[in-house]
Amino acid sequence: MTSSILEIRDFSSAVQFLDALSPRVRPWYPHPDNWVFRGQRDATWKLLPSASRAEAWKPFGRVVGGLPPARHMNDARLQLELAAVWRFCRNADREGLLIPGFDHTWVDFPDLEQKFNDLGDVFSGKQFFPRAEWRPLFGMAQHYGIPTRLLDWSERALVAAYFAASGASVAGAGSGQQVAVWALDQSRLSSIASSEEQVIVVRAPLATNPNLRAQRGLFTLHGMRLQADKTDVDIPLNDVIGILAGKAKTSHASPQPFMYLYRLPAEKAPLLLQLLDQEGTSAASIYPGYTGVVDALRENHGVINYRDDPTESW
Questions:
Q1: What is the 3-state secondary structure (H, E, C) of 116-156?
Q2: What is the pLDDT of residues 209-220, one digit of tens each?
Q3: How far apart are CA 133 and CA 120, in angstroms?
Q4: Terminal Cα-to-Cα distance of the chain (whole angstroms)
Q5: Do residues 6 and 260 make contact, with C-beta atoms less than 8 angstroms apart?
Q6: In the beta sheet, which residues pair with residue 260?
Q7: Cβ proximity of 273 and 159 under 8 Å
Q8: Is-contact 16 245, C-beta < 8 A?
Q9: Can you give 38-84 as a three-state secondary structure string?
Q10: What is the rounded CA–CA span in Å between residue 64 and residue 93?
Q11: CA dihedral 14, 8, 223, 137 (to 10 degrees)
């Protein structure tokens, strides 16, 4: 399926799927740096950040108790998000870990607490947040498992393919299920931005985050929401881009879509992991350290050789 916004391509072969993600082929070539990629183990999942998914908050059910009530925040999830990020900052600082945006004035916990409470007032009633100076902090928290409004991406397509394949291998493939790699042309985002509705790229410092550095990770942030029966409903990123591109009437300025969705049967995930390992992308490279090395061995244990699979072409 092709539109001026999104093109969907289906593959039956893990080899062909991986070949299509090479930076040496179109549509990525000759400007592979324009593109960012996201892997998902289920192609039916929407492009929603973790803060928009109720299951992501289950391990953090009581974390909101660590933040004083923000009198002017109407969004309960915003309060949860701010509480979780605040606790992340406080506990990381207590352990002597560097946090983006911290300086010597931030070491006083009551002062830090007040800053976050004031931040709630700043964000009150806003749909697009956090503000610019806080985004690297939220990015670091997101990468280490705190639910935020940031959506994870990578500058490397093979990293996205790894996350799609490893997730499907762990969860098990259901009948007819597909893994997915999304691709987004980040260079064109500014052409559809408005003063209130945007999709922006957020980067967190790599020096203090070896996993993020290894994964060439970054994030997108989008702030559009709809009202449904007086309840805020989050819109998936791909739908947001479609709406904004339509308003800006720039979607026809380029024959190339803003986004691509590449899909592969989930039963091919183990073979895809093996191919990725041969390309140098595995748990060992994604998660630097001894644990990643062992996880890489587990991933490839007992995987059949793709040359023995009659459905593969190579």
A1: HHHHHHHHCCCCCCCCHHHHHHHHHHHHCCCCCCEEEEECC
A2: 888 999 999 999
A3: 15
A4: 25
A5: yes
A6: 7, 183
A7: no
A8: no
A9: EEECCCCCCCCCHHHCHHHHHHHCCHHHHCCCCCCCCCHHHHHHHHH
A10: 19
A11: 20
Alpha carbon distances (Å) from 205 to 82, 180, 199, 216, 285: 20, 27, 20, 11, 19
- pLDDT higher than threshold 70 for residue 1: no
**Rounded distance between C-alpha atoms, residue 139 and residue 221, angstroms:** 10
Is the model's pLDDT at 226 over the cut of 70? Answer: no
Three-state secondary structure call for residue 203: coil
Sole residue written with tokens 């179109």: 26
Token match 């922006």: residue? 200
Query: pLDDT tens digit string along 43-62?
Result: 999 999 998 887 888 787 66
CB 263 within 8 A of CB 269: no
Do 159 and 37 contact (CB within 8 A), yes or no? yes
Complete edge-to-edge strand list for the sheet that includes strand 199-202: 6-10, 259-265, 178-185, 35-40, 150-154, 217-222, 199-202
Chain centroid to Cα 167, Å, comes to: 14
DSSP letters for 105-116: GG--HHHHHHHH
Which residue type is seen at 76? Answer: A
Phi, psi of 28 (to 5 degrees): -75, -40
On average, the pLDDT of the chain sits at 81
Structure tokens belonging to residue 177: 């299920």
Averaged over 103-113, what is the pLDDT? 53
Strands 178-185 and 259-265: antiparallel
Q: Quick count: other Cβ atoms within 10 Å of Cβ 37? A: 24
d(CA 186, CA 165): 24
